[in-house]
Write a structure and sequence with these properties.
Number of strands: 0
Distance between the termini: 57 Å
Length: about 190
């Protein structure tokens, strides 16, 4: 018997599950509550997003980029809290799953905030047509590639240019502070 991806990932109706247990599991690790409920596709989607956010957060903290770490932490909370609520609601059968892409605005927010890590959520969602899914996927990947190119190629060249221009300035406290800023940005 052939089943589509949505039918395979839907929570199992035969075994009632505890909303409190599902919420607690998602509180420990976003997506774990969805996994407990049998919604594997939503669990994998949330795990992908959380892994990307935690990797970015660790990288930001290791680099001393406090602002980036704070922004990633806020995005993490915006994944974590809905994951907990979603797991409890799904266990109690109180509405469509947010993590399965029931709310298109949440899916778009996650695509813009978590980038390619949220693409599984898009493709799991029934709120988008196939053409919209392809368009959003291409858009998100292009944005990610553009950002990577910006960080790897454009910004270093801009810093080199700015440093070369500093040599023409008088070597005073202002030039020294600009030089320190450039060194910190590298």
């Amino acid at each position: 018997m052939v089943m589509d991806a949505h039918a395979q990932s839907a929570p199992q109706a035969a075994r009632p599950r505890s909303p409190a247990a599902a919420a607690l599991l998602s509180l420990v690790l976003p997506g774990l509550g969805q996994f407990y409920l049998g919604d594997r596709a939503s669990a994998v989607t949330v795990f992908c997003i959380v892994a990307a956010l935690l990797a970015g957060l660790a990288w930001s903290l290791a680099d001393g980029a406090l602002l980036s770490a704070i922004l990633l932490g806020v995005i993490y909370v915006l994944v974590w809290i809905p994951s907990v609520v979603d797991a409890a609601r799904a266990a109690g059968r109180q509405g469509p799953s947010l993590m399965a892409g029931a709310n298109p605005w949440y899916v778009i927010f996650m695509l813009l905030a978590a980038g390619p890590a949220a693409i599984p959520m898009l493709w799991h969602s029934r709120a988008f047509s196939r053409g919209e899914k392809i368009a959003w996927t291409v858009f998100v990947i292009l944005i990610a590639v553009s950002f990577i190119a910006l960080v790897l190629f454009v910004i270093p060249r801009m810093l080199d240019w700015a440093e070369a221009r500093l040599d023409a300035l008088p070597q005073d406290a202002y030039a020294a502070s600009l030089r320190r800023l450039i060194e910190n940005l590298r």
